[in-house]
Amino acid sequence: MVGDDMALQSMTGFARAGGSLAGATIAWEARSVNGKGLDVRLRLPPGFDRLEMPARQAAQKRFSRGNVQATLTLTRIGLTAQPVVNEEFLKDVASLAKRLESQFGCAPPTADGLLALRGVLETPEPVVSEEETAQIDAEILAVLDRALDGLVAAREHEGTALRQLLLGHLDTIEQLTLRAEADGSREPAAIRERIAQQVRLLIDAAPSLDEQRLHTEAAFLATKADIREEIDRLKTHVASGRALLGSGTAAGRKLDFLAQEFNRESNTLCSKSNAASVTAIGLELKAVVDQFREQVQNLE
């Protein structure tokens, strides 16, 4: 299921599935949490290590990121084993009990007491044919498939909720970008007046300063303080974020990179700003970008 047709997934989820076959009651629990890559961990009962590889491959087909753990529980396996009494050992223990009774007045032995002694009553492991083993293994893996499909559904359900949340953050980033673009401090007349005031203050403070040189430096500073490029890039990043969230692919890593770009542009906007109103917008941008990046960490 890893591919272009995969729905957006969160990396957290839980699912359970069960089944039974040939006296075996099977239960799988599958859960996942955030991870930089894909880490699949399996917990299998003793004697079932042979299933580790196909079980791991089943998870790798469905997920590309996250710490995935799957636990198999078997409450009964195979044929019902018949208990066997170790009669020679039982005779020795009964004889010893009789002697202790006659010599020391101990209570006489009881049947259930003797049978409870270790080594008297044995339950051998049931003999399971290769065909029965293959059937049990196939059912175990089929139940695992259902559990993993349930985990996919749980991750997709949360992924849908995350998608709406992230789209909301992108809407806010776009609105703040447009506010910065439309801010009155960016009007040419306002910029000219602000620079003219700064030049007049410098000339008044130091009349010997070269006026032409001051105007050249002022023009350079005005160019350096322009945030047109940052605004354009923020708009482009918003469009890219929406496209990634609508692509239906595992976009977590790309969106994390995009969050870094958002952060870079909002930082630059703040550093270039020469108006308190634009600085305030930049600080709001940084706060929303932090929220966006925090939520992106949950996506596959």
UniProtKB/TrEMBL annotation:
UniProt keyword Flavoprotein present: no
Residue span(s) of domain Endoribonuclease YicC-like C-terminal: 188-300
Pfam family, one: YicC-like_N
GO-annotated molecular function: hydrolase activity; RNA endonuclease activity
Cofactor(s) named in the record: a divalent metal cation
Similarity comment text for this entry: Belongs to the YicC/YloC family.
PANTHER family: UPF0701 PROTEIN YICC
Protein name, entry field: TIGR00255 family protein
Species this chain originates from: Mesorhizobium australicum
